Amino acid sequence: MINTKYENVEDFLIDNTFQQYCSGENKQCVQYWNNYLLNHPEQKETIIQAKRLFHILVGNKKPLDAQVSKLKTDLETSSSSSVKFRLSTWIKTVAALIVLAGGIYWLIQQRQPGSLATSHSAITYTTANGEKKVLELADGSKIILNAGSHLSLEEGFNTNERHIHLTGEAFFDVSEDKNKPFFVHTQDFDIRVLGTSFNVKAYPEESTSETLLIEGLIEMHSKRGSENSMIIKPNQKVILYKTLAVSDNKEPTQKIKKSPLKEIAIQEIASEDGQTLSADVAWKENRLEIVDEDFASLKTVLERWYDVEIELNGQQLRDFRFTATFNKEDIKQVLDALKKVQPFNYKIYGKKITIYE
């Protein structure tokens, strides 16, 4: 389900951009959340509570200094017995706040797995498997971030240019601004755009990377092989076929070498009544479209969609192909439906699934 709402105080507190807004350390975050507050006045009270709790938990310096100053005054004016009592009480209070602050910091870190830490990023968004996010940027652009993805805005975004780095999949609806070109950077290619709607899919572990243009015009530069450049028109999809990545076993920790580009293909995608009919963008409507997909590829899709781990036991299973559409079905319902197309068995152990012949 697409995570479009912040429903309670905790939802705000675990958002790293909201934390930077509360601390005031990032101007873009402050601008974003001020705009968010204007657009969502019904959440004003919840945001105020979350901001107040943030300062309490991480340590609001001014109130703490005031407490220290007050304690010093109390020590100078109170009797020794009273001082001992107040000192003990104050120490216990501070200790409790420190423990609580540590707890909320640990919770925030645990709830934000795999944050993309790069020197160029000012704001980072991450989605876990089984999660999607809808983002509204300061320039008015809207992005839907698919499961298992990372997206970061470069520092200075929307000042002169707009640069975004993506690992995974996202749908972009970019606000037009000819004076501030919009760039999307992935491991395999760069995209330059002035104002348009398009989908980018660039998961490093997959054998292809893709871009589908819905409307507008984009210029695409591949980063592999001959570094081709091409202009993409509406209802065209560019597919970059990669060779398999190679593990470097000479290092103490294995590294995945950047795989060279094998081939680039451009497909014309059918449309009807101005609406693009493509499985590539069905995910943003929370619809799982499977089109003539083999089980080995489908395994990765289902793992990311339902946040599960799937093991295929049997070589014949990998050759099975499926075409189907799912909306609100859970993983068990999906597997039961696929079983009617091709014969296989499965067992579910929590989030781990074994599929066998």
UniProtKB/TrEMBL annotation:
Residues 124-218 form the FecR protein domain. The keyword Transmembrane helix applies. Signal peptide: none annotated. The chain crosses the membrane at residues 89-108. Keywords: Membrane, Transmembrane, Transmembrane helix. Residues 292-355 form the Protein FecR C-terminal domain. InterPro entries: FecR, FecR_C, Ferrdict_sens_TM. GO terms for molecular function: sigma factor antagonist activity. PANTHER family: PERIPLASMIC SIGNAL SENSOR AND SIGMA FACTOR ACTIVATOR FECR-RELATED, PROTEIN FECR. This is DUF4974 domain-containing protein. It comes from Sphingobacterium olei.
